[in-house]
Amino acid sequence: MLRHLLFATFGAGIMYLVTSNISLFDNYQVGQIASFVVVLAGLSLLTGVNGQISLGHGAFMAVGAYTTALLMTHTQWNFILELLSAVGAAGVAGLLIGIPATRLKGPYLAGMTLLFALALPPIADKWPNTFGGDQGLTMTTPNAPGTLSPQEWLAWIQIGGALIVLVLLANLLHSRYGRTLRAVRDDEIAASLAGINVARTKVLAFVISAGCAGLAGAFLGLSTGVVNTGAFPLTLSIQLLAAMVLGGTGSLIGMVWGGILLVYLPQWSTSLSGHFNLGSGVSAYLATIIFGAVLIVAMIAAPNGIQGGLRWAWRRLPGSGSGVGGSGSSAAPGAPTPVLTDE
Amino acid sequence: MSLFFNYTLNGISNGMIYSALALALVLIFRATKIINFAQGAAGMMTTFIASSLLAHGVSYWWAFVLVLAIGFAFGAMTERILIRPLQGKSELNPVIVTIGLLVVLEGVAGAIYGNASRGFPAAYSQSGLTFGHSRIAFSHFDVFILVAVLVLMIAILILFRATTLGLRMRASAFAGEISRLLGVRVGILLTLGWGLAGIAGSLTGLLVAPTSSFGPYYMDLVLVYAFTGAVIGGLESPVGALIGGLVTGLCISYVGGYLGSGLEPMGALVLLMVALMARPEGLFSRPAARRV
What we know:
- The structure holds 2 protein chains of 2 kinds.
- In chain A, strands 1-2 form a two-stranded antiparallel sheet.
- Chain A has helices at about 1-20, 25-50, 55-75, 80-100, 105-125, 130, 150-175, 175-185, 190-195, 200-225, 235-250, 255-275, 280-300, 305-315; strands at about 135-140, 225.
- The model of chain A is unreliable at about 320-340 (pLDDT under 50).
- By secondary structure, chain A is an all-alpha fold.
- Chain A has one domain (about 1-235, about 250-255).
- Chain B is mainly α.
- Chain B has one domain (about 1-280): ABC transporter involved in vitamin B12 uptake, BtuC (Orthogonal Bundle).
- Helices cover about 70% and strands about 5% of the residues of chain B.
- Chain B is built from 11 helices and 2 strands; from the N terminus they run ααααββααααααα.
- The longest helix of chain B is centred in the first third of the chain and has 31 residues, at about 1-30.
- Chain B is globular, with a radius of gyration of 19 Å.
- Chain B starts with a helix and ends in a 14-residue tail after the last helix.
- Chains A and B meet through helix 5, helix 11 and helix 13 of A and helix 4, helix 9 and helix 11 of B.
């Protein structure tokens, strides 16, 4: 626990140095990465640690973003309270989806969450007076204290949020509850024989994961300053899954890789297609194609993702001794069994 | 009353389409215990190929047959190249791979054909049939949908029930290892199952395109509706897929008609959740005992 706090403080220090030395646009992107880390960490907990899949986390993000935006439009609540409401509302949505999910195995759950991801955005279109329709609702970040630029301030909020979430989740995974989550993933029947309430554990994992997505949705809404239905398409949910797999399913710190990919891959692919004169029609889709292709290749060739590869390399370093997870950052204790590989 | 009647007709016509894609999902699920989430996108891709063929002057029926063949080849290739290497791994891996394929296909279609929805011709007139003085919400094209899907269903049923090949396919789906011991070439039969599903998926794409905004994403909702239907039908039997697809089509048509089309996917989600809570194993299959 202390180790996680120390690590987080260390991370905060580095991020302070980074954010104050880069351009405002880079600050914006670092903030976006932090926001994605929040949702990916929740997804990693759900899929990697508890063994449930979700193709609907983009929709949970929408729930959080709209909750905060609605509160900002209609009330004068405290900013922190508005963010916590996003967590709460998305958590409730996670509860509603998570309860039937307890009885479902992988493919069924994937299908149900896929339907959820497609079903939610049209709801906001259905009542444009409440949800702002195509225009969406505006979101404003509170004024920055002192001489900070608004971009830096927002990046700090997002990074701070991400660090808090990471520390909380890391502690959770090291607790009795983390062991319960893993026990349910590895063998539900054995877990229930050991006295674990399997259904409650799975629902709780869903609620926590959805809550993280809600916070991330609110964060991303703050970045763009507006929330509309077009911001949370099915592609987002699938890109989240891809980023989570590539970062390293079940790892928390690996989600930083995932967040970096989510923010920078579209840019790289745009400049790549510009380099090869592929035209704007292609460049708009290139990132999507790369995400999908890499997802397929990773699943067949390297199911442990980037963090898994790093951990593998670290273990093979001469003289690293018990250096498993020795980066001090790895959330999963010891060598976690990656759920996506099985035997 | 006449509104209800028209919603019902509309629901039957859409339900038949969902049944066809649900059949594709069922064919794959009973053979390999995998849900192919890229099935709709594969149908989208082959329908784009059909539209290119039509643009180059190929006649509708030639394009129709060619595209079904391409769907077969694509389904078989998917199994060989992407699914076969995943055998014996966690059940989440194939789910994620088919999702990846879905994204790639939609991206490729978007990159080649653009995001704007375009028209796709129907085989027959789409204006409603008239009986006496009243026009009903059921066109020649809807009749064609009904016939085409029923022909596909019956062909599959005959294949499974009345031919040695079908018997071998059922055997290898039911007990792969034992079938292999008895000399059945299980691998090639699995590929064949994916190919047949590819035909059903291509047919769905061709049938949906004229009545929807035909673009890279037009099969997304059709896929999840078909999934709903397949789950209601139990994911094991073609007849279950037919009935599940029809139930889903009717429910969605009523929700869309009375509550507004924006709520259709939410209606399907509620239907799926109720179905899963009430009978997780589906209406048409026996619950399997879990082995400790």
